[in-house]
C-alpha cells in the first residue's frame, strides 16, 4: 500500500497518567510543533486534485449534463457524473436517499452534480465551470410547516425508502402520549419558539486523500467521526467489497457532528479508481457550508399547565424540525427532540409531537446536542414564562419539578442512577456573582459594543439567567451500539509496552488520552502506544452522542481485562498463586499487596494480545402503534442521561440591542472524570458553542440558498465574546457504566443557549422567543 | 545560512509571468518562482511543505494561517507571496529550537490550550508577537491580542491560561537578558 508522504501516525507519542489523573494529550507535541498531519496536509507527489460541481438551484430537474468541454481541458484527467457511479447511486447514514452525484433532480443548493480530477486545483475548478448542466428550475419547497400540508409538492416524489410513520414530506413523526393531557390546570402558559440553523463550524474543512491500490481497491485517508460507516457507504457506491475499501483516520480539525455524514469520501475514491492516481480533495470554507449537514432549525409550540404551587400538571409540545433535502440522521434527531421536549422535569401527563420534514433547504443532521438543543430552548423559555406567571423564582420552580433518580421520562422510561437536576441548579445559583457593573469607569472594553464607543454605560442593564438540560448518551432505540478494541502487552527493549488499537476517531476531544489511561491503570504499565485508527480492526462506532469514552473506553477496559487474565493464566501455569491478583507497576500483585512476579520477566519474548467488543446495555424502540388508544411513544429508548445547568450574567445595552456576557457558571455531573483536563475542556468548549447559538450563529437561508457561507458573515464566538467561566464538575458514578462515567461532550452545549437568553430576558423584560437573538429583538424595534 | 530553491509551478496554461522572491523562512533564506497572485499561505504549504500553517476560512477571519512577517502577525491567506519578498517569515515550524519547545508551545501543551489543534499554530504565533512586545500582559490584554484568532473547541479559557503561563516562564529569561546587557 502506498502511504502519503506527509502521513504520520497521530497520537502515538506516550504520556503518563492513570484514570482520574490530570493527563496531557499524547498528540499535544505534534500539534504545537506543526508536525501533526491534518487531512488537508496530506500530500503525494503524483496526486491529482478533485473538485465538485454543485447545483446553483435548490430544486430543479436535470435534463442533461455535457462534460465535453471540461474533459477537453488541458490537465484534466477525469470528469464523472452519476453515470460513472458503479455501485449504489444513493447513500445515507440511515436511509440511502442521497445521490452520490445528482441523477435526475437536484434537491438543495450545493448538491454535487459532477466531479473533476486535474493536475492542479485551479485547473479542476475551471474545468468544472465548463460543465454544461441543463436545469429545469422548479419552485423550491422551503417552509417546513407548509411542507407538512398534504397539498404540498413532494421533495422526494418516490421516497427511496420510508420505514417511519409519516407521509408526504414528513420523514418521521414521533408521537409521545402518557397520562391525561386533557387535564385542566390553575395556570397555563403557551409559547412559540424558533431556533435558527447552526453550523458546526469546525476549523479544518472537509478533506482527504484517496489512493488507488494494486488489488483494485482503494485506501482512503480521511478526517471523519466514524471510519466504518464511511467504509460501508463508500464500498456500496464503488460496488466493491468492504475489504477493498480501507480507511485510515487522518488528523481531524474538529467535528461536532459535521463529519458523521459522507462528504467527499465517495467522490475522491471514484476519481482515484478512474484515474488510477491518488486524489486529494479539500473543501474551501464556502464549500464546507454546502458540504456538510447543519443543526436543524426548529419551530416549537408549547403549552404548560401547572398548579399554583408550581407543580407541572401537563406539558404539550409540537416541534417541527426542517430536515432539508435528505434524511441524514434526522429520524434519530427528531426522536431525541421528542424525548427531551419536556426537559429534566417530572410531569405525568404529556402530549408530544415531533415532526421532521423534507424540504429543499440544506440537509440537516448531527450537531452536538442532537435534537436536545432545540427543545431545551423551548422548555426552558417556558419555565421562565411559567415562573413569571406564578410569581415563583425561576430556579425554585425548576427545582420544585426537578427530575431525580427514579423519575419517569415522557416515554415512561425510568431514569436510573443519579439525576442531580436540583443539585446542579443549586450549585450554579449559589456560586458567587461577579462584581456589579462599574458605574464610575468608562473602560469601553467592559461595555456592550466595546471599542465601537456605543455607550458609556447609559442604557446598560445587567441580567442573570438560568437553564438546565439533559440528553441521552450513546445510540438509542434498540440500536446495537458497540466498539472494538485490541490490546497487546509485550516487552520491547526490556520495557513493558501496551499497544491499544481501535477504529475510534480522535477529533480533538481527548479519547486517545483516556484509552491510554485505561491501559495504564488496568495493566499496570507505564508505556502505552495508541495505534492509529483504521478499518483493519472492527468498528468503534461513531465519535458522537457523547458515547466514545463509554463504548470504546469500555472495549479497551474489556480487552485489558482479557490480557490481564492471560498474564495471570501464564503465571498460574508456572505454579504462582494469582487468586485475586492484579497488575500494578509492572508486577503481578496478590490480593494482600505482595508482589508475586514481574510481568516483563513472566512474558519474556511472548506477546499477549486480546480483542474485545463492548456492547452497551440494550435499549428499546419507542412504541409506534399509532392506531391504538393509550400511551404511545413509550419505551426505555435511552442508555444513559447526562445533565448540566448554566447561569449566565449578561450586560445588555437595551437601547442598541448589544450584549456583553460577563460570566458563565456551569455545573455538570460526569459520573467519573477519567481525565479532568479533558472534561473541563469539553464543558468550556461546548458552553461556548451554545453561546454562539444564543447570540450570533445562524446560517441564513432564503429561497433555499445560503446567504452567508463564510466566516465573514457566519459569526462564531471570538475570545472577546466568550466570558470567564466557572466550571463545577460532579462525579456521581453511574453503576451501569464503565468506571461509573457519564458522557460529557454534549450537555454543556444544550443548556448554555437558554441560559444566555434567560439573562437577556431578565435584563430587557422582552420575551425573546427565537435564537439567535438579534439586536432588534432586544430593542423591540 | 542555507539557501533552498523551490519552484512553485506556474499556471499550467495561463502564461502568467512569474516573479522570483527571496524570503527568509524560519531563519533560512528561500527563493521561489511564483505567480504574482500566489498567496503566501499557499507558498508556505504547497511550495515549502510547511503544512503547520493551516487554512481554515480563506477570508482572514479565523487566523489559523497566521504567521509572523518581520515579527508582526499576518494572516497568510490574505497576503501575496510577493509581498513577503525580502522579508522574514516565521511559521509554527520555526518556534521550537532543535532541542526544546518554545515556552508558548509548552504552555499550550501543558495548560490544555488545544483540543483539535487546528487553530493552535496561529494562536501561538499571535501570542508570540504579544509577548515580544508585552512580556507581562494582563488577562484582558491576552484576550484583545488574540481576538483575531478563532478557536471552535476550547472556549478559549485554557488558551488565555497557556499564554499567561508562557509569559511567566519567559519573564525571568527576559529579565536575565536585560540584566546581562
How does this structure look, described?
The complex is a heterodimer of chains A (781) and B (181). Chain A has 781 residues and is an alpha+beta fold. Chain A is 24% helix and 25% strand. The longest helix of chain A is centred in the C-terminal third of the chain and has 26 residues, at 548-573. Chain A is globular and about 75 Å long. A 6-stranded mixed beta sheet of chain B has the order 1-3-2-6-4-5, with helices on both faces. In chain B, strand 4 (66-69) and strand 5 (72-75) form a beta hairpin. The radius of gyration of chain B is 17 Å and the shape is globular. Chain B starts with a strand and ends with a helix.
Structure summarized in a few sentences:
The complex is a heterodimer of chains A (781) and B (181). By secondary structure, chain A is α+β, with helices and mostly antiparallel strands. Among the domains of chain A are: 40-139 and 220-252 and 259-277, Aldehyde Oxidoreductase, domain 3 (Alpha-Beta Complex), CATH 3.90.1170; 482-615, Aldehyde oxidase/xanthine dehydrogenase, molybdopterin binding domain (Aldehyde Oxidoreductase, domain 4, 2-Layer Sandwich), CATH 3.30.365.10.
Element layout with pairings:
The complex is a heterodimer of chains A (781) and B (181).
Chain A: H1 28-33, E1 48-54, E2 60-66, H2 68-71, E3 76-80, E4 90-91, E5 98-99, E6 105-106, E7 112-118, H3 121-129, E8 132-137, H4 144-147, E9 170-178, E10 187-195, E11 207-212, E12 218-222, H5 227-238, E13 245-249, H6 265-275, E14 279-282, H7 285-291, E15 298-306, E16 312-322, H8 330-339, E17 350-357, H9 372-390, H10 394-401, H11 421-430, E18 460-473, E19 482-492, E20 495-501, H12 511-523, E21 527-531, H13 548-573, E22 582-584, E23 587-589, E24 595-598, H14 599-603, E25 608-615, E26 640-653, E27 658-669, H15 676-695, E28 701-702, E29 705-706, E30 725-730, H16 747-764, E31 770-771, H17 775-779
Parallel strand pairs in A: 1-14, 10-31, 12-13, 16-17, 20-21, 27-30
Antiparallel strand pairs in A: 1-7, 2-6, 2-8, 3-7, 4-5, 9-17, 10-15, 11-12, 11-14, 15-16, 18-26, 19-20, 19-25, 22-23, 23-24, 26-27, 28-29
Helix pairs in contact in A: 5-6, 8-9, 9-16, 10-11, 12-13, 15-16
Chain B: E1 3-7, E2 19-25, E3 28-34, H1 40-47, E4 66-69, E5 72-75, E6 88-90, H2 103-110, H3 120-133, H4 139-145, H5 157-180
